[in-house]
Amino acid sequence: MGVDAVALDADQLVAARRLAELDGRLGRRWRRARGVYLHGRPGRGKTMLMDHFLAGPHSDRKRRFHFHGFFAQLHRAVHETGSIGGAVDALLDGAELVCFDEFHVHDPGDATLVARLLDTLFARRITLVVTSNYAPERLLPHPLFHRLFVPTIERIRENLDVVPVDGPRDYRTAGGRGGGFAAGAYVVDDCGVHGDVTVPIGHRLLRARRAESGSLTVDFAELCGIPVSAADFLELAGKFRRWTLCEVPALGTVDPEWVMRFAHLVDVLYDADLELWVYARVARSHLGRDVAGVPDLGRALSRLSTLRFHAGDQH
Fold first, then answer.
1. Among 85, 97, 238, 256, which residue's beta carbon has the most beta carbons within 10 A?
2. pTM as predicted
């Protein structure tokens, strides 16, 4: 969905105008351009608006990151350089405009590093454009730790214009992605592949059904039932371009930690635009039923709606 190709809904139009105003202010060195924080439910066009904006600014010192991937790089860079400032230098390479897609803060341990990152970017007068499924006040919702993140939420509002993009339509359900991720399908059936191989993931070995020629076939329980992170999924995504996930259960029947890993996996594959085949035990409409308290699952389910649906087909 491109800005010039579709009629924007009311929220998208407001956001597009605000981004256009920001575009006009970039590069004026006597004042920092105030950034923008777009938030709303999955599939409402936030990433489309950000990407259209990113193609237009006058500045050539700009970087775009999916926040999952950036945060994994940030952890490594802090360890390697010994400081948040050194990590920012290494990752941003002098950028004056930084765009974060799917910004989120769920984990109290991560919140401290996010706060330090934002303080560093604001202090360096770097302009931010952010998309998120969460309004700033809903970041780090944990009742025991949220109050500790409130000063960072206040700094977000001091430095960024917060703009809702939350229209009535989930545009992903309309299709439009023809290859990559959406070249796969959601199938209610057995995946029909058998075998037993091991694949390194993080500091562990993953048991898979098949791993060859850039294609990985693995059971849901084997991949999401072990303590792996989004960073581990990103590493695997660099090795396998075609993914088949077998024996996916109704998510309400498994541990919420497994569901969170599944959501992270879908995020990683969608953003890398890697082909995904899901072989599930339940229809897609029932997959996320009776799941509560799992941040980002709604976005993952929205992204799965771009897959073709088959009942009983095999590939």
1. 97
2. 0.76
